[in-house]
Amino acid sequence: MKTEVLKDIKKTETEYQSMISAAQEEKKKRHSQAELEADNLITKAQSNAEQYKKLKLEEARHQAALKHAEILKNGNQRAAALREKGEKNLSKAVQLLVLRFKEQLHVQA
User: Which of 20, 40, 43, 21 shows the shortest CA–CA distance to 32?
Assistant: First the structure.
């Protein structure tokens, strides 16, 4: 009877050791899986961040190009308006220059 109880205790102890070993292996396995999943999530997040950065840079370039085109358009319009105004005043300016020139000739003569 004592022998059977001791054998049962030994058997139970062996089973528990086996269960503990299995649990430790499962722990290691899950830890490895968690690390792998974390690495995958980090890689995915980095990839998403890179794509977001590229998208924002492209949007900024597009906005800059639009602003550049708008500034050029406004500058060209102002230049054309100034040119037109100058051309309108050209004959008056020539007359004034000739008048001043004649005045200078008369003063010196």
Answer: 40
Rounded to whole angstroms, the Cα distance separating 16 from 11 reads 9
Task: Please give the single-letter amino acid code of residue 82.
Answer: L
The sign one gets for the Cα dihedral 39, 41, 47, 49 is negative
CA distances for 74 relative to 53, 67, 68, 71, 88, angstroms: 31, 11, 10, 5, 21
pLDDT tens across 15-39, in order? 999 999 999 999 999 999 999 999 9
Tokens 């004592």 identify what position? 2
- Alpha-carbon gap, residue 59 to 86, rounded angstroms: 40
pTM higher than 0.85: no
Report the length, in residues, of the chain: 109
State how far the Cα of 78 lies from the Cα of 50, in Å rounded to an integer: 42
Q: Which two tokens stand for residue 88?
A: 């309108």
Instruction: Return d(Cα 68, Cα 53) in angstroms, integer.
Output: 22
